[in-house]
Amino acid sequence: MIRKMTKWMLAYLYLGVVGDRNSESNQQIFVSNLFSCIGYSLTLVLGISAAFGGEMVLSISLFSACFLFFLSHQIHRFKRIKNTYKISTRIIFICLLFLMLYLVYTGGHANTGPLWIYILPPVAFFFGGLRKGLVNIGLFVILISIMLFYPGEVLLNTSYTHEFKSRLIYSFLTVTLLFGFYEFSRQKFITFMQKLSDQFERQAMQDPLTLLPNRRAMKDYLEHEYNRAQRSKVNMSLLLCDIDHFKKVNDLHGHDGGDYVLQNLSALFTSTLRKQDKISRWGGEEFLFLLPETSESDAHFLAEKIRKKVANHIFKYAGKEFSVTLSIGVKEVTKNISVDKAITAADKFLYQAKEEGRNRTMPKVVHAHAD
């Protein structure tokens, strides 16, 4: 029995929570479900109590609030409605707002109704955030201040002492200030953690030396582009290039000189490629190029353009001038050739280029492009 009740309660609280939403939205849905459960349970009990006590107007108001709290939960069952959590939280807050105004107006049971208004600040800030929460709370304070301090208490259906009115407002503002500060700190912390997470994500997906995407990031690009190419039935090609005699560069100019070459080559590659192309540092002195909507012939033409541009580029480091060359392997990804197979084939062509003398693109392709 207890297990069934627990299972039912969890299903109730998690209604509307889905994995494709962000954690903040799912948290709001969970809390709104919890609040609706507490809200309609409490207002139902209070409504019944008011009905038996002969306070019919109060009873009807509480039963109306009970219905709205229940509705705020059930709306998650309508899957055709978008952003049900926003509608749900608004129903809860508006219902709560008018219920608090009504309790201040009537005094509730034995004039204790105004004591419930302290529920508003945490709900307003949690569902609306700091700015919207302050606006909503400010509006509420203005309304109840007018009701409480209007001459002759003509806007009230009960009577409060001046001391009670003033202390109610002061204490409510104090509670609002405390919850507002908490919400401000919470949002600052969330923003800080998000920035930190984004920074770590960038570091995890970026080569620190060249600032190009690393192998891990490129694998994500490759998977995404391969799926898109298969759906759209378009071409997609890969270039795998390696700096010829890079060890000699390090021996002659030191590792700092080698890093200088890698950084400048990365900038050179980036300026040569099209906007849709992707390039990554695949490892060491190897670079992998992803060329969407590009046939193998066009990829070979682009590879040759890059190779010649690099060969003609003069590097200047520590007062010395020198140049480097590239060996490049090209392979088109097709329906029958996966990304992994294409990379393996491009790697074989790369080493074939090195075996045949370096500073060349393989396989050899005859095309009609003019230099």
List the defining traits of the structure above.
371 residues, five-stranded mixed beta sheet, single chain, elongated, 10% strand, Alpha-Beta Plaits, 2 domains, 7 strands, alpha+beta
Short description:
By secondary structure, this protein is α+β, with helices and mostly antiparallel strands. The chain has helices spanning 2-13, 23-52, 56-74, 84-106, 120-149, 162-205, 215-232, 246-272, 296-311, 339-355; strands at residues 236-243, 278-283, 286-292, 315-317, 320-322, 326-333, 361-362.
Total domain units: 2
The SS-based structural class is: alpha+beta
Share of residues in strands: 5-15%
- The low-pLDDT segments are none
Distance between the termini: 80 Å
Rough outline:
elongated
Number of helices: 10
Order of SSEs: HHHHHHHEHEEHEEEHE
Mean pLDDT: 88
Could you tell me the number of beta strands?
7
Strand order of the largest sheet: 2-3-1-6-7
Describe this structure in words.
The protein has about 375 residues and is an alpha+beta fold. It folds into 2 domains: about 1-200, no CATH class; about 215-360, 2-Layer Sandwich (Alpha-Beta Plaits), CATH 3.30.70. It contains 10 helices and 7 strands. The chain has helices at about 1-15, 25-50, 55-75, 85-105, 120-150, 160-205, 215-230, 245-270, 295-310, 340-355; strands spanning about 235-245, 280-285, 285-290, 315, 320, 325-335, 360. The protein has a 5-stranded mixed beta sheet with strand order 2-3-1-6-7, sandwiched between helices. A two-stranded antiparallel sheet has the order 4-5. It is elongated, with a radius of gyration of 34 Å.
